[in-house]
Amino acid sequence: MMQGNSIMEDKKHAILSASSSHRWMNCPQSVRLSEGSQDVVSPYAAEGTDAHTLCEYKLRIALGLLKDNHPMPTLDWYSEEMEECANGYVAYVLELIEEVKKTCADPIILIEQRLDYSRYVSDGFGTGDCVIIVDGIIHVIDYKHGQGVQVEARENSQMMLYALGALELFDHLYEISDVSMTIYQPRRANISTFQMKTKDLYNWANNVLIPAAELAYNGEGDFKSGEWCQFCRVKTTCRERANANMMLAALEFAEPALLRDEEIEEVLKKIDDLVEWANDVKAYALHSAISGKKWTGFKLVEGRSVRKYVDDNIVATKVSAAGFDPYEKKLLGITEMQKLLGRSKFDELLSSYLIKPVGKPTLVLESDKRPEFNPAKADFMTNTEEN
User: Fold this and answer.
1) What pLDDT is attached to residue 387?
2) Which residues of the chain have pLDDT under 50?
3) What single-letter DSSP state applies at residue 218?
4) Beta bridge partners of 190
5) How far is the C-alpha of 338 from the C-alpha of 347, rounded, in Å?
6) Which neighbouring-strand residues pair with 178?
7) Residue environment code for 20-30, b if the CB has 16+ CB neighbours within 10 A, otherwise e
8) Residue 130 CA to its chain's centroid (Å)
9) Per-residue three-class SS string for 336-357
10) Euclidean distance between CA atoms 153 and 141, whole angstroms
11) Is 381 helix (H, G, I), strand (E, B) or coil?
């Protein structure tokens, strides 16, 4: 049985949305503080929206919910890479459907389904990319197009809220003992699945989610700065975030050799947040100045620019007529070449001609999944290549 809402329908957002739950559960005051602030849609978000739309369209075609000749929705950010990502997502979902059919001949399949979790979170709802229901288990699948940060399904509050919404629809109809939550993130080659008992999910909802949601909805609780600030609409002017980063900056401006080991370790944990916050403040100040704000001790000036041709075609014609070749030839980089050829053709033609040099060492938290760097081994490999 296949269900779901119409493709490309208008989608409203909950005050306490599932996608922002990591932030409002950690910093409940951020919700009401953000009200009235302009939500600027970044190019990355717009591209992600188009990717979701393409995934939905292709999945509906594959499941026979749309005719093969149904026109594809207009996508401003469409690319060969997006096409391949969507195809991979559809293949994954179809494979999962075939797997669950081994134990359930007629699973319920929901696409872009509104999931209401307002029993636990006031006015709470979200949209599940794909939900599959069979006796005993609910599968919730969420597509992520971003490649900046790898998203893990384990104890992911967004996925757990979606699962609660799915249980609201079907827990009274089926004996559901487990929920399986999967993040499909193709641009990071990441398929992350986390399964938990339904009783444990309800326990989390009652003891962790509800208290946090009540604080957030009522504008109560504490401000708390952290990596969840990244998508907060008031992250630039938030005093709590400023205080946290200025405290770190006090150590940052000290002579590194005079800091204790534990102070350096504390800086290393938070230095990326400090740099991001400083850049956010700088961008905010510039935007305000362009809009007419006068900052004491600062002024707007024209930045450095470089010369450019008025018309490339005219310049090329003039230079060619004088007997010179106005063009340079340069091999496409790997990313652009992959976009040109498509992933499968790229692999077929060029996979044996690719190498991956030893990466530059970088310090990260121990929780990072990359293997630990071995300087001695890296030196040996580098010397071997040079010889």
Assistant:
1) 44
2) 4-6, 8-10, 380-387
3) H
4) 185
5) 9
6) 137, 197
7) bbbbbbbbbbb
8) 17
9) HHHHHHCHHHHHHHHHHHCCCC
10) 10
11) helix
> How far apart (Å, rounded) are the C-alpha atoms in residues 3 and 65?
9
Tokens matching residue 80 = 């060969």
Eight-class DSSP state of 186: G
Beta bridge partners of 109: 2, 132
User: How many Å apart are CA 131 and CA 111, to the nearest integer?
Assistant: 7
What was the pLDDT predicted at 205? Answer: 94
Query: In angstroms, rounded to a whole number, what is the distance separating the alpha carbons of residues 294 and 380?
Result: 57
The answer for residues whose C-beta is within 8 angstroms of residue 5's C-beta and 6 or more apart is: 111, 112, 113, 114
For the chain, where are the alpha helices, taking DSSP H only? 21-26, 30-34, 43-62, 80-100, 157-170, 198-204, 210-218, 239-252, 261-290, 312-321, 334-341, 343-350, 375-386
CB 173 within 8 A of CB 133: no
Q: Which residues pair with 143 in a beta bridge?
A: 184
List Cα–Cα distances, 256 to 104, 271, 273, 360, 372, in angstroms. 62, 13, 18, 22, 24
Residue 140: strand pairing partners: 131, 181
Alpha carbon of residue 314 to chain centroid: 43
